[in-house]
């Protein structure tokens, strides 16, 4: 009989909390779809401020703008965290053409982030096409020296998730210039990381690592249509001359900031749950998808909690990280200071995969925490959230070191992401208001559940 | 022992078929993502032919174009099925403004499909705002006679699926003119069925039912921004005069066609499995989402089977239905002829919810068939297909009457659909190639499974 009573009590408690949670998620989604500012903040960031490359005026304006908006939410604390960031400037519009006899064919290119410039009058040389870093190494110095190397391995369309295609392709962009430089190449042209055939070059960081400055060779991305055409031309004219000119420049590091806002926990203010995105962007579009969306979604998580008068047990902190794109200095600084002050981070979530329809979560945690989160799947079903997979959470939250921390990345639909990623069309019009808002609701819901059930 | 052997045989058979099915779905998705024509067909339909309103030149060109493309696939039979369809023509660009004193404020409007014209010089009258048909009826003839009625109930953003918001809002558009006309109104202006605030009016059919021609009043849609502005102006100036002018005209019905292609079943050629979309569109954009996408996806289902040399047991038939938008004459004709010739349809699938990332299926069937289909859910998991819900399948396949037929609608992500639906921005650039292809793979996979396991 006693057992029966306990069982009944337990069942009652479970259904009560299930109902409470269902109700709370419903309120969260309703608020997100009818009463939050994320879309309007994104409009301002994108259309009033524009791109936010680290060290740019836009980045500094974005720091002040988001700080002001967070202050308006009536949080318990809003502050800036200083961090030194790279300042790389693209310079004049890049120029590229292939020369066959007297005919010049122009190509849309853009300097890769942190690339060095070409000589002032540009660089002209033979160009050799490879599909991979391995193929480059097989060619060796003899065939590479004095040439421009053209990396032209397309993203593999067979992957269902486009991020897998990106991951298995981006080594050309990140390491191509370093590896080709070691073999005496003069420059590097990389096929844009874009599954679609179009005319937009997509930038992104190239990493010279410890290559001495004077040995660094210039690197640019070429549009996917451009890459197809250049490859075709090379088949017909293997000796064609390729010319490109870019005047990008790296200046000394400058001071910038992570932007931080908090709702203090009522029971465990010392336990911290972070939600964030990165405030910097590349300089070609206005960074609406990457990662304006993630920033405003994270801000709206706290906005939703304030609007619902939800008092979290643990401290909920939004962090807008500076400089994810070309250095992750903001993420590193945040992690370093958190460790130094022995902050206890129990949870961190990042949204940095675009503002598309949310599908689920990518989770980094121990088995127990994973099982707990996956156990909430049914609560998310009415909101069409179905992916609870283990995998990479986010670059900026990577350096947070707390023991047993659970890290989560929002997982939106990925099909369109690389149409816009790091390109001139990453602009406000590519973001759908509802998709953005559903993302913020999905993030807030998981934060609520974790806050409620963390022990 | 005998039981054990049976069990082992059964388990072996189940795992063998599971592996075979997994392999087949992998091949289907791979083919769709790398080697089908649906996106290029859609480019032609949208950019070379343009809109395909029933009775228009575009509709007739689309019939010939898709028939030719189906013939190139090497199907067993390609043919046209005659059907008489309405011919409604929009006429000159519509004009609308509100007049307060001497100030005129213009509004973007478009005539609703099948609407009558205003008098030649337009219609000017007081305008009265209501939120619903019920509110209109409460106002009654006394307050409505001689006025223009402005239906301004927004789609409810709280629904997660936008089709639910549409379904609970569209009565204003479909019945508003009929109901207002009965109360002596002179015309009707309806807020566009669009969750987004923008400047595009969205057309769609208005249904006068048996209202005598001379008693029909003209009806137009106004953009959502326009509706917001007009509502605000009416609060300040309840007596403002509203003017609109549209010259749309209905001609006698004309001959058109459903376009049909078949792969004959190897075991049961008499059993028919249909896959289709509707070839007609509205006339404002080029109908890429509604429903060019569904047509080319359906065509590519058969293309995939041909490319994989898959020989279906049952006959697989693609049907591109004419005239879904303003009459469903193609669907009705197809159903009528199927009944008359006692064709045995075991399955019908329609794609008419846009070319966005596929999420699952909306299924109309008996419990047993539903359970069977839902049992394949795990096979679809690698492709992020997770919705197996009971619900409306498709308008064109509705009239097919075979006993125990299973009807399925492809269920894509719905968040962006009503941004484009029936508006001038329903154009090719709104469709993402991969999303379209994933849709066709999802359709082909379910067709394959049903064909394989139907008994």
Would you give an account of this structure?
The structure is a homodimer of 455-residue chains. Chain A is of the alpha/beta class and 455 residues long. Chain A has 2 domains: 25-88 and 252-453, Zn peptidases (Aminopeptidase, 3-Layer(aba) Sandwich); 91-247, 3-Layer(bba) Sandwich (Glucose Oxidase, domain 1), CATH 3.50.30.30. Helices cover 38% and strands 24% of the residues of chain A. In chain A, the strands form 2 sheets. The first copy, chain A, has an 8-stranded mixed beta sheet with strand order 1-10-12-11-13-16-14-15, with helices on both faces. Chain A starts with a helix and ends with a helix. The relative contact order of chain A is 0.17. At the A-B interface, α1 and α13 of A face α1 and α13 of B.
Question: Any chance you could write out the topology, listing elements then pairs?
Answer:
Two copies of one chain form a homodimer.
Chain A: H1 2-34, H2 38-49, H3 57-72, E1 77-89, E2 95-100, E3 103-106, E4 109-111, E5 123-130, H4 133-144, E6 148-151, H5 162-167, H6 171-182, E7 187-191, E8 219-222, H7 224-236, E9 241-245, E10 249-263, E11 268-278, H8 288-307, E12 314-321, H9 329-340, E13 344-350, E14 358-364, H10 367-374, H11 377-380, E15 387-390, E16 406-412, H12 417-420, H13 433-453
Parallel strand pairs in A: 5-6, 6-7, 7-8, 11-12, 11-13, 13-16, 14-15
Antiparallel strand pairs in A: 1-10, 2-3, 2-9, 4-8, 5-9, 10-12, 14-16
Organism (chains A, B): Flavobacterium croceum DSM 17960
GO biological process, one term (chains A, B): proteolysis
Subcellular location (chains A, B): Endoplasmic reticulum; Golgi apparatus; Lysosome; Secreted
């Amino acid at each position: 009989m006693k057992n029966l009573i306990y069982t009944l009590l337990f069942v009652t408690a479970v259904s009560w909390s299930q109902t409470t949670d269902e109700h709370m998620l419903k309120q969260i989604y309703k608020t997100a779809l009818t009463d939050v500012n994320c879309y309007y903040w994104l409009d301002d960031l994108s259309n009033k401020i524009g791109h936010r490359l680290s060290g740019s005026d836009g980045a500094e304006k974005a720091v002040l703008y988001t700080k002001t908006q967070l202050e308006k939410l009536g949080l318990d604390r809003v502050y800036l965290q200083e961090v030194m960031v790279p300042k790389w400037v693209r310079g004049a519009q890049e120029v590229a053409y292939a020369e066959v006899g007297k005919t010049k064919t122009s190509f849309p290119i853009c300097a890769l982030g942190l690339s060095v410039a070409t000589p002032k009058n540009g660089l002209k040389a033979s160009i050799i096409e490879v599909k991979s870093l391995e193929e480059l190494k097989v060619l060796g110095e003899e065939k590479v020296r004095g040439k421009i190397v053209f990396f032209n391995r397309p993203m593999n369309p067979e992957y269902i998730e486009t991020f897998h295609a990106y991951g298995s392709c981006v080594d050309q962009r990140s390491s191509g210039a370093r590896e080709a430089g070691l073999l005496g190449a003069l420059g590097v042209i990389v096929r844009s990381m874009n599954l679609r055939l179009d005319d937009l070059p997509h930038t992104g960081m190239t990493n010279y690592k410890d290559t001495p400055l004077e040995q660094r060779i210039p690197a640019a991305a070429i549009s996917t249509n451009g890459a197809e055409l250049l490859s075709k031309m090379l088949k017909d004219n293997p000796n064609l001359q390729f010319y490109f000119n870019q005047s990008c420049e790296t200046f000394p590091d400058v001071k910038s900031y992570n932007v931080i806002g908090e709702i203090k926990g009522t029971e465990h203010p010392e336990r911290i749950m972070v939600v964030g995105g990165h405030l910097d962007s590349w300089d070609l579009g206005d960074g609406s998808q990457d990662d304006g969306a993630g920033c405003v979604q994270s801000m709206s998580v706290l906005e939703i909690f304030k609007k619902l008068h939800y008092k979290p047990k643990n401290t909920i902190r939004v962090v807008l990280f500076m400089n994810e794109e070309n250095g992750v200095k903001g993420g590193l600084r945040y992690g370093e200071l958190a460790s130094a002050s022995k902050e206890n981070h129990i949870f961190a979530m990042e949204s940095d995969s675009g503002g598309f329809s949310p599908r689920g979560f990518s989770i980094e945690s121990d088995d127990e925490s994973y099982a707990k989160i996956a156990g909430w799947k049914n609560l998310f079903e009415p909101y069409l959230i179905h992916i609870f997979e283990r995998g990479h959470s986010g670059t900026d939250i990577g350096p947070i070191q707390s023991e047993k921390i659970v890290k989560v990345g929002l997982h939106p639909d990925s099909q369109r992401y690389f149409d816009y990623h790091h390109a001139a069309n990453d602009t406000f019009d590519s973001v759908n208001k509802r998709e953005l808002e559903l993302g913020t609701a999905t993030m807030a819901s998981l934060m609520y559940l974790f806050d409620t059930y963390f022990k």
